[in-house]
Amino acid sequence: MRKxxxxxxxxxxxxxxxxxxxxxxxxxxxxxxYGPSPTLPAPxxxxxxxxxxxxxxxxxxxxxxxxxxGMAVSAFAIGLDHPRTVYVLPNGDALVAESNAPxxxxxxxxxxxxxxxxxxxxxxxxxxxANRITLLRDADGDGVAETRSVFLxxxxxxxxxxxxxxxxxxxxxDAIVKFPYHTGDTKISAAGTILAHLPGGPINHHWTKDLTxxxxxxxxxxxxxxxxxxxxxxxxxxxxxxAVLEVDRASGKWRVFASACAIRMAPRSIRRPESYGSxxxxxxxxxxxxxxxx
Length: 294
Known about the structure:
Layout: H1 2-19, E1 83-88, E2 94-98, H2 110-122, E3 132-137, E4 147-152, E5 160-164, E6 167-171, E7 175-180, E8 193-197, E9 211-213, E10 219-224, E11 243-248, E12 254-259, E13 273-281, E14 286-293
Helix pairs in contact: 1-2
């Protein structure tokens, strides 16, 4: 009984910062915080970190984003389960990765793990992953998908997608998987084959893996986020993370193509690279890989 009481008191104490996370006194206006002489708030020290959770809510019925004059916004598809990325096939079909974080057994241990799981639930991220890719087809061009089907299922927290010829690649949380594809397919039933394993593991902190292809089609580029925020999981957990990996399509072998210049000291320099693409310059026969870093 005494142990249970102490556990409850510990959990309550750790949750206190969450109650005050929206205290207006803890915020600072953006105007003075940038420029050549920014005014920055004084550092705060505490035993427990303050966690800010952005509330998420659906659009109300009939509500849409505000569009520029003469334009309108309508829902292409609704009722998706954690839609993460959209990939448009050459025939106009749109693929949506419906995905959430994979199981992270190392993140759920002890009181810290319990609080972490509760925070994830409050943020809307504590639900199981749908682990599927949904196809949306707007055959009549009216801006609403009238065809909707499960394109791929049984995946492992999918995120990145790319089609190269008749091969469709998916970046799961721990591997790049290849599937056969034929133009017009609304579902892939064939079993996938693993092209390359990606850094994952029992922590897999920034788990999303995005994907693109080189201009000549011989290489894939996969993003791998850091395994922590400030290296709190030790530097051993950051090996080959916070990086963009170049994967050979023929052999599946990969190398680190781009990484934080000081990754051994600051793995967050490329904390979560995603949403990127490639472009080529014919005059120099070179390629540029660009990515969004958060």
